[in-house]
Amino acid sequence: MYGQLQHYFYYSTNHNYLEQILHYILSFGLSLTFLVVLLSSDSKYAGFTKVKFSEFLLVFFLNLIFLAAIFVVLEPLSGTFRLVIDKTIRSPLIDPAYYWITRYEGWKGVGGFFLTNFIILIFAEEIFFRGFLIQYISLKMNKFWGVLIQAFIFLFFIVILNFNLPPVENYIFLVGYSFFGRGIIGGWAAARTDSIWPSLFAVTIVNTLIIVFYFYYPFIL
């Protein structure tokens, strides 16, 4: 199995370095935003409102089920996320989200992938888009517009990252996975609970499962 993983350590030399640098800059910007929001006087603006455990479980499972359903329906037909992973792990500048999974075999790699996304990368995205943006827009308008507008802004953020996918796969990734999966479904969970935790757990778990299938059970995807 480890020999199979080594196949993914070789990266294409034709990748656009500018896009990778932009990715790191945007990630750094999100991290700074995260620190600013954390220092705000009201934790609600960061999506850290306390939620009853029963409410958390309900919203989390609904978020997880609907997000997973999107992947179950779209991924076998299109292979979109598989293509995204292929492009990412073969790039000369490895995405930090995939560092552990491409260098360590078994649960050490999977655990590193989960923690890197849960604690740093996806966490920064969730606290800005599903935390700060939804709360801020909701104060100015209402939660419906808060969810919808942040979903469009998140979509624009993913467009900027530019994964260079074919037209059909690009549409599925942007509209299906990013806008509806994370923007609308994750946004609904955050607006319902005033907390980023349900969507953060859901998207990290789904992404980790996809990674496990990609590397260890490719026949499933």
Please describe what this structure looks like:
With 221 residues, the protein is mainly alpha-helical. It has helices spanning 2-6, 17-38, 53-78, 80-89, 107-140, 143-161, 167-193, 197-216. Helix 5 (107-140) runs antiparallel to helix 8 (197-216) and helix 7 packs antiparallel against helix 8. The longest helix has 34 residues, at 107-140. It is globular and about 45 Å long.
Please work out how many helical segments DSSP would assign. 8
Mean pLDDT: 82
Give start-end ranges of low-pLDDT stretches.
1-16
Radius of gyration from the alpha-carbon trace, in angstroms: 17 Å
Following the backbone from N to C, one meets helices and strands in this order, namely HHHHHHHH
- Give me the count of strands: 0
Structural class: mainly alpha
Helix percentage: over 70%
**What is the 3D form?**
globular
Measured distance between first and last alpha carbons: 18 Å
Biggest sheet record: none
Which band does the percent of strand residues land in?
A: under 5%
Short description:
Helix content is 74%, strand content 0%.
Features:
221 residues, 74% helix, mainly alpha
Secondary-structure blueprint:
Blueprint: H1 2-6, H2 17-38, H3 53-78, H4 80-89, H5 107-140, H6 143-161, H7 167-193, H8 197-216
